[in-house]
Amino acid sequence: MTPASTGASTRVDAVASVPSAPPPADETRMSPGGPGYRRMSLALFLAGVATFALLYSTQALLPLVSGDFAVSASDASWTVSAATGGLALFVLPMSALSERFGRRTVMTASLAVAVSLGLLVPFAPSLGALVALRALQGAALAGLPASATAYLAEEVTPKALVTAIGLFVAGNSVGGMSGRVITGWVAQEWGWRIAVGVIGLVAVACAVAFRLLLPAPRHFRAGSLAPRVLAGTVRRHLGNPLLRRLFAIGALFMTVFGGVYTVIGYRLTQEPFSLPQGVAGSVFLVYLVGTVSASAAGRLVGRLGRRGALYAGGATTAAGLLLSLADALPLVLLGLVLITAGFFAGHAVASSAVGRTATEGRAQAAALYQSAYYIGSSAGSAVGALAFHAGGWAGTVGVGLVAVAGVAAITLAGTRAAVRAGEVRTA
């Protein structure tokens, strides 16, 4: 998902089988230390916080949702899967709107609708109503991820692109962490409805700050909304072997992450740990590790190349999954740290690579990636919960290991294709 840094340009391409052309640089594009870069970084960081805090606001609360509505873990998990599924379904249409009406306009509208729905979620009278509201909320949020990636690809210098996208992804991790930790402690005292209401208010503040801070785009050029044009762009992206591999890698990484963090609350509040809801929610502090690993993705690619960075992310995630099988709480927490670090690093590398590879229709390329990514999240949440119901935590870990093996296989296949094409040095 993330791009490669300059240091990686002469290295082995992580998954490339076709050369990627970076967007042209000029003095009007933002770079670290330049005018507008800090405002832009903070604005998109806050947008990432709001997006993940809203999108996963019920994930740490699933045991309480199960108890309130008297439903199973797999039924309650639909409050997460519906939101990520709504995002996956609507991200491509929203990206088309951003090509016509502008990235900043679509991102602002997307956040405005999502936070409004977030203030309604605490009043859901039934599980069905809650799932429906969450699906609408996910659909509204769809305008943000693809538009943000396209905005960065257009407005930031190629050398700074990995770092800039890493900061946006870091905002995702902070949002995911803060949302889960806050809801865990608030819910312990006042219930899950008050907890998700608090997250809605936090998201409102982030959305307002985002709109005030984000610089006006300088390089956006309006495109066509004609279905034929959009279909042609999508067809070309799907015909690109490198992009197809990146889409699949994003989906598989998110399958692991979605499954683990949907189920972990159940595991920690049950035997042998039996943690209180607030303490169990605090486990999401490990998201801070994701903030660091996403921000450092550019340096990782510079040292290892894209392929090496993806292998490192996958290996770290797999090691975390295996450690989490232990019945000792410190080892479980260490496993979650490794899973989180590996996931966010891999996500940052793959997502930036999409932005760097697509030379036209960047919003559509980013949207296809985000669609695959959140399909992976929905699948991971649903399948991870089913596996937990059938085989306990070991079942969820098994699903994750299969997904990591898929990441490794796709990366290896891409590298072999690049070697055959003479695009990668074998030394």
From TrEMBL:
Going by the entry's taxonomy, the superkingdom of the source organism is recorded as: Bacteria
Q: How does it sit in the membrane?
A: Multi-pass membrane protein
Native source organism of the sequence = Streptomyces prasinosporus
Entries under InterPro entries matching the protein? MFS, MFS_dom, MFS_trans_sf, Sugar_transporter_CS
Coiled coil ranges: none
Q: Which protein, by its recorded name, is this?
A: MFS transporter
Q: Which UniProt keywords apply?
A: Cell membrane, Membrane, Transmembrane, Transmembrane helix, Transport
What is the annotated localization of this protein? Answer: Cell membrane
Q: Does the keyword Mitochondrion apply?
A: no
Which SUPFAM superfamilies does its entry note?
Answer: MFS general substrate transporter
Major facilitator superfamily (MFS) profile domain location is 36-423
UniProt lists the family membership as follows:
Belongs to the major facilitator superfamily.
Q: Where is this region: Disordered?
A: 1-33
